[in-house]
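Title: Prediction job returns without error message
Component: structure pipeline
Severity: low
Priority: P3
Assignee: unassigned

Description:
Job completed but the reporter wants confirmation the result is attached to the right record. Sequence as submitted:
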Amino acid sequence: MDFSSVYESGISKMSKKKYNDAITDFSNVIDNIPTFREEMVIMKINSLINRSGCYLLTNKKEDASNDAAKAIENVVSKKSIDTIKMMNIEEKQRNPLVAALCNALVRKAQIDDSMDKCYDAMITFKDAISILPDPAHVANFEQFLKSCGFPKLSQDDAEMTVFNEIIKSLHDKGFIISKLQEFSNDVVNSKFSNETLTKFSDTNACMIPYAIMTVYVTDPDVIIACLKSLISMSAKHVGTVYGLITDIRDIMIRYDKNSQILSLCLQFLHCSPEFLFKEFEDKSMIDPICSSLSAGITSEAIESAFFILFSIAVTPQDILPIARKDVVDAVLSHQTEGAIKVLSRIAYVPDIADIVFERGALKWILDYIIGDISEEMVVNSLIAISRVLLRLVIRDDLPADSGIELQCKKLFEVVVPIIMKKSRAPDVVSNGFACLALGVDFAVEAARSTRAIQLASLTLAMYTIDSKICSNMVAFLYSASQVGMINDIKESKSSLPTLMNVLGAHPDNRTLVERIAALAMLCGAQNKEQIYVAAVQQFPDSSILRKYAGMLNIKL
């Protein structure tokens, strides 16, 4: 057999993308060529390298990897790597075994890269280039670095020194960790000017920690150092540092039991620009964030997770993916500001509302709300309470010992003074009366003793033109009328006049028209017939209005 012709035939077929035919030719050489002369050894090694390339191009990566390894073994059987490394550059350039070894190493690195074994690829590329810095192999290595996310930086820019040093010593784990720690400290301690930080962003140097994580993805120590460097830059508002958020997701999935890495990931995500939270709505992002809550992360990281989930869950569609057991357990265990924020979202889901009520959520929220907290947190607390109560009022299976009466009594004792104190805060007033409207059925005496009816009448006059706030206050008055408090409403002299003013301001608002007309009937307003008939004509299908038709002998 003319092995040279067969080998050249394989090269020709490979160049024409006839990979399977090329594999057949290279296999003939590999299996049959004698190796008593060096040029035959070289041909066998090159055939292994080329067959490896064909396997790689036909997605037979294990076969490709095996051939590359065999090619390296064939070189080493003739001349050890240590012996090769001891040669001077001229000797290496003249020796065909050295060229074959470097070609085999580069092929092995390319295969490792294709199999996402980036660390192995990087080490093997480094080995090949350290033996013989062939321009083609250097170019291959630079392409590999680019694919990992390493930007091409100026070698002459002193401000890029730390990054260039890291890339140059990418194989040295200890050096990388040390340099990243030094860099993080310098960023935190403002050793870099704003102009330099901007340059890190403009040149994509700030993305190098992501690239390092790609290479060292299996090494938690390096991952931790990279995350800390990203956090340090995010604190200085290096904007493009958030360019690869999905990489953080992948790290959280890979290290789902590593509390330190998860905590750092959450700390980093917490600082994300607000517009990026839209990207977090993808379930693949939500899952690792929720799962981290049961992985022993720090208290600060739990608050970060709560903040992220609260920011994601804006619409009902957004809420459902985070309404899950691990989130509920974390919320009820930690009872923090972030927990209440998340609860104000997920209690929208009936099953969650049942669980949090049964596990005492109303009690701790009411304890929390009387503290020195921000107006925002008062509102979030009230929303959480109202969503739980909204579920309870429609349940017909509440056990007698549920404790709802006692908790709603406390609701009035806590919320009424808050509304009085913050009567000029529309969101507090609106959500406060929404809670009272839902709780009055369980706490009539508390509503009476706290003079909630009188407060509603007075406060309603302040917000006559705001339909949303009026709706919640009128809903409270109507709910109170349904549980035996109609005389309390009558005794509040300002109630009916104010209700009439609200009706005049919002004559087309169904919620207000129905309930005010009903209250007019129940309170015996002078013009109750006129108000009621007009409401019936406007909303003839109203179930609320239907209940009072008999009072005027009207058929509906």
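Comment from assignee: result matches the submitted record. Residues 3-147 form a domain with the Serine Threonine Protein Phosphatase 5, Tetratricopeptide repeat fold (CATH 1.25.40.10).
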